[in-house]
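Lab notebook page, bench 4
Experiment: in silico fold of construct C2
Operator: M.H.
Input chain length: 557 residues
Purpose: comparison with the prior construct
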Amino acid sequence: MVDTVAIIVVFAAYLFVFAVGLLLVRIVKLKGDCTRTERELVAGRNLPIVVGVCTMTATIVGGGFLNGTSESVATYGLVWTLAPFGILLGLIFGGLVFAKKMRALKYFTMLDPFYQKYGITMVVPIYLAALCGDLLWSASILMALGTSLGIMTGMDTRLATCLSSAVAIFYTAFGQILAVVYTDVLQLVLIVVGLAVCTPFILLDYRVANISTTRHQWLGTLVVEDVGIWIDLLITMTFGTIPWQSFFQRVLSMQTAVQAQVLSISGAFCAIILVIPAILIGAVGTSANWNQTSLGLSPLEINESYMMLPYVIKEFTPRLPCLLGMAAISAAVMSSVDGAILGSSSMFVNNIYRQIIRKNVSELELSIALRATIIIIGILSTVVATSLSTVYGLFILASDLIFVIIFPQLLCVMMLQSANTYGALAGYLMGLVLRLGGGGDQYLPMPAFIHYPFYSATKGQLFIFRTFSMLMSITTIYCVSLAAHYIFHWKLLSPKWDFLKCFPTDSMYLATSLSSPQLNHRDIALKLTPSTPDCANSDSVVTDLSSKTESTQTLHD
């Protein structure tokens, strides 16, 4: 049965968010001079710290975070609900290791260091992995929102999904980063108010047993043979939190590098606080008497545990708190979807369109391309959300691939000076093969063609194969990079076999210096090889060739 009042509330909330997003873009004035691209991608690098913490928190506390936490507590127990703790550790690590350095270098996207060190060879495959993660993440939480609104309002789930997506797409397309961050502040307020109002009513409902007496049900158990899986998932959740453009977009928008660190760490602790109501709701899901509800059965019994959060809010709260809870769920989803769509679009426009397709693109054309890309990626996410039934399983796989592939690549490109394109490409393929070889899980059945130690025909991989794949990817990057450097430095192979152009020869420098005698030594090296540490970031190479370029300059004159 369609709930007209609830639908009106949903429409009103969406119109309000949409209007606020567009209005604030016109009102907010950025201090200092900045290009149009800086304004649209990184808010002119002038985002206030309070706004930054709010948008980071809202992006983390998305629909998948809240819904997934309640589902996990109700289904597997709190001991297996690793995402909140993993995200806390991951954001602290990301803030301490990556945030300050990347902000100090004034990057626009997460892919900039890859282009600077490796050139276009690695930018495209890494972008495809990141796009896959963003696309499936957006689709999975849009589908969850559509189903949630369908349960609470009686709307058709596909209609609810399309409506929510359209609002997020259009205010993101027309307002870019400023619209996203300021609507995130509003959405965070809705999340806090909605969950704060709903949770007491849920806990005090007469049909809900005291959760302290049912803790054996919702705390869960951890047996010895599953310790490997638990450790693997915790490590995956921790380091898989970092390599997302939606995280770095906020880091790179801060006024200073120190503020970027504060943003990341503060957002982590705020997210942990806001996950507490979702944990309590999951505990209620296992403690309530569902026979006295309109549903008649527990969501666990009808295989709809992924909808535990909206079912509990609907069944155990009065009318007004229920509407506020529905607004909280909608706000949580939109605050994540807009960030994911903008993140993927920013990487495409800055690192694919500007650096590969149209190198001399104007600021206006880049702005138009960004809006078009936001709309296209948003539509793709909506299509996936409304057409597939295994989106969550695909999202799990995409998240694993981001952890196994992008995290080791990001770590090496930022921390390993000796890394080069040969090592990066080999590490990418190694991580991909080892992860796919491990197979799927209960969400995405996929046969394993690699049986790691302790493999079980019934439980699957009991070995920490995700972490192993990630570590092997890092090891491969390091070893292959060193091997390539040794082979070409000592001329064990002719320079003509250097098909990735990582190790330029003296003749290449000679030709460049003759054609461009006014370039200084560092300019020559950067122009020739923006992709390798041996040439792009090494003063020693330039120094070694100093005498050659100086003599060539004299001859030219």
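Observations: Residues 504-556 form one domain. The two ends are 86 Å apart (CA to CA).
Next step: discuss at group meeting.
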